[in-house]
Task: structure prediction
Amino acid sequence: MGSSGNGLAERDTILLFYKEFEQDKFFKNDRYLKRMLKPLYNLTHHRQKKTGFAVSFELLRRALQKHGWKVRVNDYALARKCPHHPVGLVGFPTLLEDWTLPNPALLGPSLYDHPMLAPRLMQDSRYRTYLVLAQWTYDMFHPHYGDTCARWHAGIDTDEWIDTSSHAKDIDFLIYDKIRWNHDELALELLEPIREILRGRGLKVETVRYKYHDHLTYRRLLERSRAMVFLCEHETQGLAYQEALASNVPVLAWDNGYWLDPLWRQVSDTMIPASSVPFFSEDCGERFSDLAGFEPSLTRFLERMPLTRPRTYVLENLSMLQSAEIYARQYFSMIS
Result:
């Protein structure tokens, strides 16, 4: 086995760099105070304690380590010592603001929501590949970043998210409310009517809202649920609904077809195609595009539910081994 730089094994060690988004809220530099107080605050509530970016990064690290690679996180000294060894940069764009290391770099996932936010990013000779998640994000980035784009997915830990199909079920549909924009309006126009339709069919319904639960609460709800209605404008991966699939809970998903982040108007003259369930097949469940399509989709979903194989889909398409191998292949391709 060769080495890059000063004796670092070429295909043995992966150097990852991750930085959470932080900003001052009430006064200058209060983000550092919030960072110190956050562990104490997290003891006082049962909401989500990690961002989706942090969860995705942790899944990447675990997948790589589980399948044999040594992973060093934010080891600037080692990267500086071995300037020809690749680095992986993950998280928020703030990580790149003061990035001075010369190492060849694999960017993403995460970072920018749209390539027009950093149109000249890949002109930096250090930056070799830009990882995106969903096919729709690849289609959005590729015209700007070209063949430097590559797809990756976070692997779902199916040892953690076990098959719950044999558990006692007392919830017919768990509604996962991840509506992020115009929530009050969409709650009235979409969420509440869906609740009424389900209850009108004699189905028992529970609702969980994004950011207002922790993983233990969510896992226990999945154990009790026969199916899920997933409400979200779009997803680049969609860990929450994929955790449901891994639990063998089929999903009926609102998939409006477009990227509804208000940012789209700043970067495009036309609406950008997107999906709320970018990793999905008939084995997982059904989709509907609007409220008018919900009842027909619900009928098909209930008829087909015994034939769905959501956990099998995750095992075949979203495994941690696949995730690790895709990342490692892109990472080590930068070693000449």
